[in-house]
Amino acid sequence: MTTEAVIVGDGPAAWIMALTLARRAPAHVTVVAHPSPDDVDPFGPALTAPPAIHARHARLGLGEAEAMAAAVPLFGLSLEGWADGPAFIPFGQTGADIFSVAFHQQLARLDRLDRLADHSLSAQAARLRSYAPPSRDPASFLSTLDHGLSLDSGAYAALLRRHALKAGAAVVQSAVAAVERAPSGAVTALALADGARIAGDLFIDASGPAAVLTDAPFRSWSGHLPFDRLHVEATPDSEPPLHLVFRNTGDGLERAAPLPGRRVLARLSRGGDGVPFHPGRRDRFWDRNVVAVGAAAQSLPPLGAGVLHLIHRAAEHLVNLWPATADGAVEAREFDRLMTAEVEADRDFALILLRHPGVVLSEAAAHRLALFEARGRVSRREQEPFTPGFIAAALLASGVRPRRVDPLAEALDPAMLAARADRIRDLAARTAGALPPWSAVP
After folding, report:
1. CA 410, CA 399: separation in Å to the nearest integer?
2. DSSP bridge partners of 152
3. d(CA 38, CA 281)
4. DSSP string, 143-198
5. Disulfide: which of 29, 50, 168, 304 matches 148 by Cβ 3.0-4.6 Å?
6. What is the pLDDT along the chain (442 residues), one digit of tens a residue?
7. What is the C-alpha separation between 330 and 38, in angstroms, rounded?
8. Could you tell me the pTM of the whole model?
9. Paired strand residues for 227
10. Which is nearest to 206 in space by CA: 331, 280, 297?
Protein backbone atom coordinates (compact mmCIF):
# COMPACT_ATOMS: atom_id res chain seq x y z
CA MET A 1 0.00 0.00 0.00
CA THR A 2 1.38 3.40 -0.98
CA THR A 3 1.07 6.03 1.73
CA GLU A 4 0.36 9.67 0.92
CA ALA A 5 3.11 11.44 2.89
CA VAL A 6 2.84 15.23 3.12
CA ILE A 7 5.81 17.24 4.38
CA VAL A 8 5.42 20.87 5.47
CA GLY A 9 8.51 23.07 5.27
CA ASP A 10 11.08 24.36 2.79
CA GLY A 11 14.41 24.04 4.56
CA PRO A 12 16.94 21.26 5.16
CA ALA A 13 14.66 19.44 7.63
CA ALA A 14 11.84 19.15 5.07
CA TRP A 15 14.10 18.10 2.23
CA ILE A 16 16.03 15.54 4.29
CA MET A 17 12.70 13.89 5.06
CA ALA A 18 11.53 14.19 1.45
CA LEU A 19 14.69 12.66 0.01
CA THR A 20 14.75 9.81 2.54
CA LEU A 21 11.09 8.90 2.06
CA ALA A 22 11.21 9.26 -1.72
CA ARG A 23 14.18 6.89 -1.91
CA ARG A 24 13.31 4.37 0.77
CA ALA A 25 9.63 4.37 1.76
CA PRO A 26 6.53 3.02 -0.04
CA ALA A 27 5.11 6.52 -0.22
CA HIS A 28 4.03 9.23 -2.58
CA VAL A 29 5.82 12.27 -1.17
CA THR A 30 4.49 15.81 -1.48
CA VAL A 31 6.35 18.77 0.02
CA VAL A 32 4.31 21.87 0.81
CA ALA A 33 7.04 24.51 0.67
CA HIS A 34 5.75 26.50 3.62
CA PRO A 35 8.33 29.12 4.71
CA SER A 36 10.32 27.57 7.57
CA PRO A 37 13.18 29.76 8.81
CA ASP A 38 15.46 28.14 11.40
CA ASP A 39 13.84 24.77 10.67
CA VAL A 40 16.90 22.90 11.99
CA ASP A 41 17.94 25.04 14.94
CA PRO A 42 18.02 28.75 15.86
CA PHE A 43 21.82 29.17 15.74
CA GLY A 44 22.03 30.70 12.29
CA PRO A 45 22.83 29.46 8.78
CA ALA A 46 25.76 27.20 9.78
CA LEU A 47 24.36 23.69 10.27
CA THR A 48 26.91 21.47 11.98
CA ALA A 49 27.13 17.68 12.05
CA PRO A 50 29.64 15.08 13.32
CA PRO A 51 31.48 12.69 10.96
CA ALA A 52 28.50 10.33 10.82
CA ILE A 53 26.99 12.79 8.30
CA HIS A 54 29.12 11.28 5.50
CA ALA A 55 27.52 7.84 5.83
CA ARG A 56 24.07 9.42 5.95
CA HIS A 57 24.76 11.35 2.73
CA ALA A 58 26.06 8.24 1.01
CA ARG A 59 22.87 6.34 1.85
CA LEU A 60 20.85 9.17 0.32
CA GLY A 61 22.91 9.24 -2.86
CA LEU A 62 24.55 12.61 -2.14
CA GLY A 63 28.07 12.85 -3.54
CA GLU A 64 30.86 13.93 -1.21
CA ALA A 65 31.94 16.69 -3.58
CA GLU A 66 28.37 18.05 -3.74
CA ALA A 67 28.13 18.29 0.04
CA MET A 68 31.61 19.79 0.40
CA ALA A 69 30.71 22.54 -2.07
CA ALA A 70 28.26 23.89 0.53
CA ALA A 71 30.43 23.24 3.58
CA VAL A 72 33.60 23.68 5.59
CA PRO A 73 35.15 20.55 7.13
CA LEU A 74 35.12 20.39 10.91
CA PHE A 75 38.08 18.54 12.40
CA GLY A 76 36.73 19.00 15.90
CA LEU A 77 35.76 21.52 18.56
CA SER A 78 37.77 24.03 20.55
CA LEU A 79 36.70 24.92 24.09
CA GLU A 80 37.79 28.28 25.51
CA GLY A 81 37.12 29.45 29.04
CA TRP A 82 36.64 26.05 30.67
CA ALA A 83 40.10 25.23 31.99
CA ASP A 84 43.51 26.95 32.09
CA GLY A 85 43.64 27.44 28.32
CA PRO A 86 41.94 26.49 25.05
CA ALA A 87 41.52 22.75 24.57
CA PHE A 88 40.80 20.89 21.35
CA ILE A 89 38.40 17.95 20.96
CA PRO A 90 39.30 16.16 17.72
CA PHE A 91 37.14 14.07 15.47
CA GLY A 92 38.82 10.98 14.14
CA GLN A 93 41.13 8.72 16.11
CA THR A 94 43.41 10.01 18.84
CA GLY A 95 46.38 7.82 19.65
CA ALA A 96 45.85 4.07 19.70
CA ASP A 97 44.31 1.82 22.31
CA ILE A 98 46.20 -1.16 23.71
CA PHE A 99 43.66 -3.95 23.83
CA SER A 100 41.03 -2.68 26.31
CA VAL A 101 43.19 0.19 27.62
CA ALA A 102 41.96 3.39 25.97
CA PHE A 103 44.57 5.91 24.82
CA HIS A 104 43.50 8.56 27.32
CA GLN A 105 44.03 5.99 30.09
CA GLN A 106 47.57 5.47 28.81
CA LEU A 107 48.23 9.22 29.00
CA ALA A 108 46.69 9.33 32.48
CA ARG A 109 49.28 6.74 33.51
CA LEU A 110 51.96 9.14 32.21
CA ASP A 111 50.29 12.26 33.67
CA ARG A 112 50.04 13.72 30.14
CA LEU A 113 46.29 14.21 29.78
CA ASP A 114 46.71 17.90 28.98
CA ARG A 115 48.49 16.94 25.72
CA LEU A 116 45.88 14.49 24.42
CA ALA A 117 45.10 16.38 21.18
CA ASP A 118 48.79 16.41 20.18
CA HIS A 119 48.34 12.73 19.30
CA SER A 120 45.50 13.36 16.83
CA LEU A 121 45.96 13.88 13.09
CA SER A 122 42.61 15.71 12.95
CA ALA A 123 43.74 18.19 15.62
CA GLN A 124 47.03 18.82 13.83
CA ALA A 125 45.25 19.30 10.48
CA ALA A 126 42.89 21.83 12.08
CA ARG A 127 45.83 23.73 13.56
CA LEU A 128 47.53 24.00 10.14
CA ARG A 129 44.27 24.43 8.17
CA SER A 130 45.29 21.43 6.08
CA TYR A 131 42.92 18.98 4.46
CA ALA A 132 42.74 15.53 2.93
CA PRO A 133 39.88 13.02 2.81
CA PRO A 134 40.29 10.12 5.23
CA SER A 135 41.95 7.02 3.81
CA ARG A 136 39.97 3.80 3.58
CA ASP A 137 43.15 1.81 4.09
CA PRO A 138 43.33 0.90 7.80
CA ALA A 139 47.10 0.47 7.44
CA SER A 140 47.45 4.17 6.51
CA PHE A 141 47.79 6.78 9.22
CA LEU A 142 45.40 8.91 7.15
CA SER A 143 42.65 6.47 8.16
CA THR A 144 42.76 8.11 11.62
CA LEU A 145 41.71 11.42 10.07
CA ASP A 146 38.02 12.32 10.11
CA HIS A 147 35.87 15.41 10.00
CA GLY A 148 32.30 16.59 10.35
CA LEU A 149 30.71 19.36 8.32
CA SER A 150 29.51 22.91 8.80
CA LEU A 151 26.93 23.33 6.04
CA ASP A 152 25.40 26.49 4.61
CA SER A 153 21.68 25.96 5.26
CA GLY A 154 20.49 27.58 2.03
CA ALA A 155 22.90 25.74 -0.26
CA TYR A 156 22.30 22.48 1.63
CA ALA A 157 18.51 22.78 1.30
CA ALA A 158 18.87 23.44 -2.44
CA LEU A 159 21.09 20.36 -2.83
CA LEU A 160 18.65 18.13 -0.94
CA ARG A 161 15.70 19.54 -2.88
CA ARG A 162 17.30 18.74 -6.25
CA HIS A 163 17.92 15.15 -5.23
CA ALA A 164 14.48 14.73 -3.64
CA LEU A 165 12.68 15.95 -6.76
CA LYS A 166 14.86 13.69 -8.90
CA ALA A 167 13.89 10.78 -6.62
CA GLY A 168 10.19 11.41 -7.24
CA ALA A 169 9.05 13.84 -4.56
CA ALA A 170 6.56 16.52 -5.65
CA VAL A 171 6.54 20.11 -4.42
CA VAL A 172 3.73 22.62 -4.00
CA GLN A 173 4.93 26.22 -3.67
CA SER A 174 2.45 27.58 -1.16
CA ALA A 175 1.90 28.15 2.55
CA VAL A 176 -0.44 26.38 4.95
CA ALA A 177 -3.50 28.53 5.66
CA ALA A 178 -5.43 26.01 7.79
CA VAL A 179 -5.11 22.48 9.10
CA GLU A 180 -8.12 20.15 8.81
CA ARG A 181 -8.45 17.52 11.53
CA ALA A 182 -10.65 14.50 12.21
CA PRO A 183 -12.52 14.23 15.54
CA SER A 184 -9.56 12.18 16.85
CA GLY A 185 -7.24 15.13 16.24
CA ALA A 186 -5.44 13.44 13.35
CA VAL A 187 -4.70 15.70 10.39
CA THR A 188 -6.75 14.90 7.31
CA ALA A 189 -5.78 17.71 4.92
CA LEU A 190 -4.11 21.08 4.55
CA ALA A 191 -5.83 24.14 3.15
CA LEU A 192 -3.21 26.23 1.35
CA ALA A 193 -2.91 29.97 0.87
CA ASP A 194 -3.45 29.62 -2.88
CA GLY A 195 -6.80 27.87 -2.33
CA ALA A 196 -5.54 24.33 -2.96
CA ARG A 197 -6.24 21.44 -0.60
CA ILE A 198 -3.72 18.66 0.07
CA ALA A 199 -4.95 15.45 1.72
CA GLY A 200 -2.67 12.80 3.14
CA ASP A 201 -2.20 9.79 5.40
CA LEU A 202 1.02 10.73 7.21
CA PHE A 203 2.16 14.33 7.80
CA ILE A 204 5.70 15.51 8.60
CA ASP A 205 6.02 18.82 10.45
CA ALA A 206 9.33 20.35 9.35
CA SER A 207 8.05 23.92 9.60
CA GLY A 208 10.55 25.06 12.22
CA PRO A 209 9.65 26.75 15.51
CA ALA A 210 6.21 27.70 14.14
CA ALA A 211 5.27 23.98 14.26
CA VAL A 212 2.17 24.46 12.11
CA LEU A 213 1.05 20.82 12.30
CA THR A 214 2.01 19.26 15.62
CA ASP A 215 0.05 20.14 18.73
CA ALA A 216 1.92 17.76 21.05
CA PRO A 217 2.81 19.52 24.33
CA PHE A 218 6.29 21.08 24.57
CA ARG A 219 8.40 19.99 27.56
CA SER A 220 10.64 22.87 28.68
CA TRP A 221 14.23 22.35 29.80
CA SER A 222 14.59 25.84 31.21
CA GLY A 223 15.18 24.25 34.62
CA HIS A 224 18.34 22.58 33.24
CA LEU A 225 19.81 25.58 31.38
CA PRO A 226 20.39 29.14 32.63
CA PHE A 227 20.07 30.77 29.18
CA ASP A 228 16.93 32.36 27.74
CA ARG A 229 18.21 34.75 25.04
CA LEU A 230 20.00 34.11 21.74
CA HIS A 231 21.86 36.53 19.50
CA VAL A 232 23.20 35.49 16.06
CA GLU A 233 25.45 37.41 13.68
CA ALA A 234 27.58 36.56 10.65
CA THR A 235 30.89 38.27 9.82
CA PRO A 236 33.18 37.95 6.77
CA ASP A 237 36.16 35.64 7.25
CA SER A 238 38.41 34.71 4.34
CA GLU A 239 40.14 31.96 6.37
CA PRO A 240 37.57 30.49 8.77
CA PRO A 241 38.96 27.84 11.14
CA LEU A 242 38.32 24.20 10.31
CA HIS A 243 36.64 23.56 13.64
CA LEU A 244 33.89 24.87 15.90
CA VAL A 245 34.85 27.28 18.66
CA PHE A 246 32.90 27.37 21.93
CA ARG A 247 33.57 30.06 24.52
CA ASN A 248 32.41 30.01 28.11
CA THR A 249 32.18 33.73 28.83
CA GLY A 250 31.18 33.34 32.47
CA ASP A 251 27.75 34.86 31.90
CA GLY A 252 26.95 33.01 28.67
CA LEU A 253 28.02 30.63 25.91
CA GLU A 254 29.25 31.49 22.42
CA ARG A 255 29.56 29.25 19.38
CA ALA A 256 31.55 30.31 16.32
CA ALA A 257 30.88 28.13 13.27
CA PRO A 258 32.74 28.49 9.95
CA LEU A 259 31.18 28.72 6.50
CA PRO A 260 32.91 29.45 3.19
CA GLY A 261 33.99 33.09 3.42
CA ARG A 262 32.31 33.86 6.73
CA ARG A 263 31.86 32.92 10.35
CA VAL A 264 28.56 32.66 12.24
CA LEU A 265 28.56 33.63 15.93
CA ALA A 266 25.69 32.52 18.16
CA ARG A 267 25.58 33.84 21.73
CA LEU A 268 23.40 32.42 24.51
CA SER A 269 22.83 34.50 27.65
CA ARG A 270 20.50 35.11 30.54
CA GLY A 271 18.59 38.22 29.55
CA GLY A 272 20.14 40.92 27.37
CA ASP A 273 19.90 41.31 23.61
CA GLY A 274 18.59 38.69 21.24
CA VAL A 275 15.52 36.59 20.67
CA PRO A 276 13.95 34.25 23.25
CA PHE A 277 15.56 30.82 23.52
CA HIS A 278 13.31 28.00 24.71
CA PRO A 279 15.17 24.70 25.14
CA GLY A 280 13.05 21.57 25.32
CA ARG A 281 11.31 18.87 23.29
CA ARG A 282 7.86 17.64 22.34
CA ASP A 283 6.28 15.12 24.69
CA ARG A 284 5.54 13.08 21.56
CA PHE A 285 7.56 13.30 18.37
CA TRP A 286 4.98 11.19 16.51
CA ASP A 287 1.53 12.35 17.63
CA ARG A 288 -1.39 10.58 15.92
CA ASN A 289 -0.45 10.92 12.22
CA VAL A 290 1.97 13.87 12.57
CA VAL A 291 5.74 13.39 12.92
CA ALA A 292 7.63 16.48 14.10
CA VAL A 293 11.29 16.91 13.17
CA GLY A 294 13.93 19.58 13.59
CA ALA A 295 13.01 22.77 15.38
CA ALA A 296 9.34 21.74 15.32
CA ALA A 297 10.30 18.85 17.61
CA GLN A 298 13.09 20.09 19.88
CA SER A 299 15.38 22.98 20.77
CA LEU A 300 18.80 21.89 22.00
CA PRO A 301 21.89 23.63 23.38
CA PRO A 302 24.66 23.70 20.75
CA LEU A 303 27.33 21.59 22.48
CA GLY A 304 26.01 18.17 21.42
CA ALA A 305 25.89 16.38 18.07
CA GLY A 306 23.36 18.90 16.81
CA VAL A 307 19.83 18.81 15.48
CA LEU A 308 20.90 18.14 11.89
CA HIS A 309 22.17 14.74 13.01
CA LEU A 310 18.87 14.09 14.81
CA ILE A 311 16.81 14.95 11.71
CA HIS A 312 18.71 12.34 9.71
CA ARG A 313 18.16 9.88 12.58
CA ALA A 314 14.43 10.65 12.66
CA ALA A 315 14.21 10.01 8.91
CA GLU A 316 15.94 6.64 9.34
CA HIS A 317 13.73 5.63 12.26
CA LEU A 318 10.59 6.61 10.35
CA VAL A 319 11.54 4.47 7.34
CA ASN A 320 12.47 1.52 9.57
CA LEU A 321 9.14 1.86 11.42
CA TRP A 322 7.00 2.62 8.36
CA PRO A 323 3.40 2.08 9.55
CA ALA A 324 1.20 -0.66 8.15
CA THR A 325 -1.96 1.24 9.12
CA ALA A 326 -2.94 4.88 8.96
CA ASP A 327 -2.72 5.53 12.71
CA GLY A 328 0.64 3.74 13.22
CA ALA A 329 0.08 3.66 16.98
CA VAL A 330 2.56 0.87 17.73
CA GLU A 331 5.22 2.32 15.46
CA ALA A 332 4.67 5.78 16.94
CA ARG A 333 5.42 4.54 20.46
CA GLU A 334 8.69 2.97 19.35
CA PHE A 335 9.63 6.07 17.33
CA ASP A 336 9.01 8.22 20.42
CA ARG A 337 11.10 5.90 22.58
CA LEU A 338 14.04 6.05 20.19
CA MET A 339 13.90 9.79 19.55
CA THR A 340 13.43 10.64 23.22
CA ALA A 341 16.52 8.61 24.09
CA GLU A 342 18.63 10.24 21.38
CA VAL A 343 17.44 13.80 21.98
CA GLU A 344 17.91 13.57 25.73
CA ALA A 345 21.33 11.94 25.32
CA ASP A 346 22.36 14.89 23.14
CA ARG A 347 21.04 17.34 25.74
CA ASP A 348 22.85 15.50 28.55
CA PHE A 349 26.15 15.50 26.65
CA ALA A 350 25.87 19.28 26.23
CA LEU A 351 25.00 19.77 29.91
CA ILE A 352 27.97 17.69 31.07
CA LEU A 353 30.38 19.78 29.00
CA LEU A 354 28.76 23.08 29.90
CA ARG A 355 28.68 22.71 33.70
CA HIS A 356 27.81 26.41 33.85
CA PRO A 357 26.41 28.01 37.03
CA GLY A 358 22.71 27.31 36.88
CA VAL A 359 23.06 24.10 34.82
CA VAL A 360 21.21 21.16 36.39
CA LEU A 361 22.31 17.70 35.27
CA SER A 362 19.82 14.92 34.73
CA GLU A 363 20.33 11.72 36.72
CA ALA A 364 21.77 9.98 33.64
CA ALA A 365 24.19 12.85 32.96
CA ALA A 366 25.33 12.97 36.59
CA HIS A 367 26.05 9.23 36.50
CA ARG A 368 28.04 9.54 33.29
CA LEU A 369 30.11 12.37 34.75
CA ALA A 370 30.72 10.51 38.02
CA LEU A 371 31.88 7.40 36.17
CA PHE A 372 34.50 9.40 34.27
CA GLU A 373 35.59 11.35 37.33
CA ALA A 374 36.22 8.10 39.23
CA ARG A 375 38.67 6.35 36.87
CA GLY A 376 38.26 7.91 33.42
CA ARG A 377 35.74 5.37 32.19
CA VAL A 378 33.41 6.33 29.34
CA SER A 379 29.70 5.47 29.27
CA ARG A 380 28.48 5.53 25.66
CA ARG A 381 24.77 5.71 24.85
CA GLU A 382 23.06 3.54 22.26
CA GLN A 383 23.23 5.09 18.77
CA GLU A 384 25.41 7.98 20.01
CA PRO A 385 27.36 9.44 17.07
CA PHE A 386 30.50 10.08 19.13
CA THR A 387 33.26 7.54 19.69
CA PRO A 388 34.41 6.77 23.25
CA GLY A 389 37.67 8.55 22.42
CA PHE A 390 35.82 11.72 21.42
CA ILE A 391 33.71 11.61 24.59
CA ALA A 392 36.80 11.21 26.75
CA ALA A 393 38.54 14.08 24.95
CA ALA A 394 35.47 16.28 25.39
CA LEU A 395 35.26 15.65 29.13
CA LEU A 396 38.99 16.28 29.55
CA ALA A 397 38.81 19.49 27.49
CA SER A 398 35.99 20.78 29.71
CA GLY A 399 38.22 20.36 32.76
CA VAL A 400 37.13 16.97 34.14
CA ARG A 401 40.02 14.90 35.49
CA PRO A 402 39.80 11.29 36.73
CA ARG A 403 40.72 10.97 40.40
CA ARG A 404 42.52 7.67 39.86
CA VAL A 405 44.16 5.79 37.00
CA ASP A 406 42.41 2.74 35.60
CA PRO A 407 43.93 -0.46 37.09
CA LEU A 408 44.58 -1.90 33.62
CA ALA A 409 46.62 1.17 32.68
CA GLU A 410 48.57 1.03 35.94
CA ALA A 411 49.80 -2.42 34.97
CA LEU A 412 51.50 -1.14 31.77
CA ASP A 413 55.17 -0.15 31.59
CA PRO A 414 55.39 3.68 31.59
CA ALA A 415 58.59 3.75 29.50
CA MET A 416 56.91 1.72 26.78
CA LEU A 417 53.82 3.93 26.90
CA ALA A 418 55.89 7.12 26.68
CA ALA A 419 57.90 5.93 23.68
CA ARG A 420 54.75 4.79 21.90
CA ALA A 421 52.89 8.05 22.59
CA ASP A 422 55.88 10.09 21.37
CA ARG A 423 55.95 8.17 18.07
CA ILE A 424 52.22 8.77 17.51
CA ARG A 425 52.56 12.49 18.34
CA ASP A 426 55.48 12.96 15.94
CA LEU A 427 53.74 11.00 13.18
CA ALA A 428 50.61 13.14 13.54
CA ALA A 429 52.64 16.35 13.27
CA ARG A 430 54.64 15.14 10.24
CA THR A 431 51.59 13.80 8.40
CA ALA A 432 49.56 16.97 8.96
CA GLY A 433 52.49 19.08 7.80
CA ALA A 434 52.56 17.20 4.49
CA LEU A 435 48.84 17.71 3.76
CA PRO A 436 47.77 20.40 1.28
CA PRO A 437 46.12 23.55 2.62
CA TRP A 438 42.33 23.67 2.69
CA SER A 439 40.59 25.73 0.05
CA ALA A 440 36.84 26.08 -0.42
CA VAL A 441 35.37 24.41 -3.49
CA PRO A 442 34.76 27.17 -6.07
Report:
1. 22
2. 46
3. 16
4. GG---EEEEEHHHHHHHHHHHHHHTT-EEE---EEEEEE-TTS-EEEEEETTS-EE
5. 50
6. 678 999 999 999 999 999 999 999 999 999 999 999 999 999 999 999 999 999 999 999 999 899 999 999 999 999 999 877 779 999 999 999 999 999 999 999 999 999 999 999 999 999 999 999 889 899 999 999 999 999 999 999 999 999 999 999 999 999 999 999 999 999 999 999 999 999 999 999 999 999 999 999 999 999 888 899 999 999 999 889 999 999 998 888 999 999 999 999 999 999 888 999 999 999 999 999 999 999 999 999 998 888 999 999 999 999 999 998 767 899 999 999 999 999 999 999 999 998 877 888 999 899 999 999 999 999 887 777 888 999 999 999 999 999 999 999 999 999 999 999 999 999 999 999 999 999 876 5
7. 31
8. 0.95
9. none
10. 297
| Pairing of the two strands 170-172 and 187-192 | unpaired
Q: How far apart are CA 257 and CA 166, in angstroms?
A: 31
Q: Which amino acid is at 290?
A: V
Beta-bridge partners for 202: 5
Pairing of strands 252-259, 202-205: unpaired
